[in-house]
């Protein structure tokens, strides 16, 4: 295909006069291999979404975050850290991102009649390059229409890297989707570049405290101070604050003491395939 040919042309360096040493050649080769493999995986529909629930202080599930997995026929489950950054670099993230949104919205629509999962939000991670793509707003609206998913239950997770590029454009696009009912959260919060000025202008509902601040919460007083600051920021801007990567009861208690009462992490549940989540839900009294 034309898309694949373009990656190959780039990969063998015909578009530059740069001199490649053996190592660089090797890296370029590996990158091209991964790009073709991702391309094939899209064709073969090997990407699936797993779901990790999010909880309130009473232990009630409020919604879940979808996390993409590559279920490779030979290599088994491949984690997003392996193929998301690569897809961002080679442009395949636009196709992969739309596939992910389609799957998440299809699941959201299917769950709408489920006695326990109906009405819960589904969060989808969106790369900055997806948001900055011209077709993004139309793509999301079309996918909502096609799947019949309730836009009010769709939450898009963005990272602060979106603020590095055109902020004004991001604000307009987010506003249009917000009008359609879609909500936004800021992922990995505290690791990026947000200025207070941007934060108050973005149509956000939620801040997600990056798990790096949760990890050493009990031993590093700076992390505890950062958590309290993010909670206070959320309160003053009218945003919900959720902690990611909560692994121990002690971390949860410390978060609660710091005023953070929404949680996501291995303490509660690992990300699981949709069927496993459904099976787990039916056991809840
Ligand atoms: P993220 O959006 O910040 O997702 C949270 C990551 O933390 C997930 O890793 C999740 O499995 C992991 N996690 C959850 N609870 C815990 C915990 O208690 N302890 C620890 N150590 N980790 C926990 P995962 O699934 O490997 O995803 C990594 C990143 O890849 C995500 O970070 C997100 O940036 C990206 N990603 C995942 N799915 C998608 C997707 O569908 N689209 C895009 N564009 N990016 C995605
Ligand atoms: Mg996320
Ligand atoms: Mg995160
Ligand atoms: Mg992350």
From TrEMBL:
Superkingdom of source: Bacteria
Signal peptide coordinates: none
Name this protein carries in UniProt: cyclic-guanylate-specific phosphodiesterase
Domain EAL: 31-285
């Amino acid at each position: 295909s034309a898309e694949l040919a373009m990656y190959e042309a780039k990969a063998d360096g015909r578009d530059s006069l740069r001199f490649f040493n053996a190592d660089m050649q090797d890296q370029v080769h590996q990158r091209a291999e991964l790009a073709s493999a991702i391309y094939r995986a899209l064709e073969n529909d090997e990407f699936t979404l797993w779901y990790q629930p999010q909880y309130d202080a009473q232990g009630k599930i409020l919604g879940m975050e979808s996390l993409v997995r590559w279920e490779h026929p030979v290599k088994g489950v491949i984690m997003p850290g392996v193929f998301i950054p690569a897809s961002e670099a080679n442009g395949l993230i636009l196709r992969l991102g739309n596939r992910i949104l389609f799957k998440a919205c299809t699941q959201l629509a299917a769950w709408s009649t489920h006695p326990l999962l109906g009405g819960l939000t589904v969060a989808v991670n969106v790369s900055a390059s997806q948001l900055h793509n011209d077709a993004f707003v139309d793509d999301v609206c079309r996918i909502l229409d096609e799947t019949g998913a309730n836009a009010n239950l769709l939450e898009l997770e963005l990272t602060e890297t979106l603020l590095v590029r055109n902020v004004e454009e991001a604000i307009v696009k987010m506003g249009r989707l917000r009008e359609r009912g879609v909500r936004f959260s800021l992922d990995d919060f505290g690791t990026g570049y947000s200025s207070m000025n941007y934060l108050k202008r973005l149509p956000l509902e939620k801040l997600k405290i990056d798990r790096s601040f949760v990890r050493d919460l009990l031993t590093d007083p700076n992390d505890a101070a950062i958590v309290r600051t993010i909670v206070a920021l959320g309160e003053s801007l009218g945003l919900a604050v959720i902690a990611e990567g909560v692994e121990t009861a002690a971390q949860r208690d410390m978060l609660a003491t710091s005023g953070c009462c929404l949680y996501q992490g291995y303490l509660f549940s690992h990300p699981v395939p949709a069927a496993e989540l459904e099976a787990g839900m039916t056991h809840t009294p």
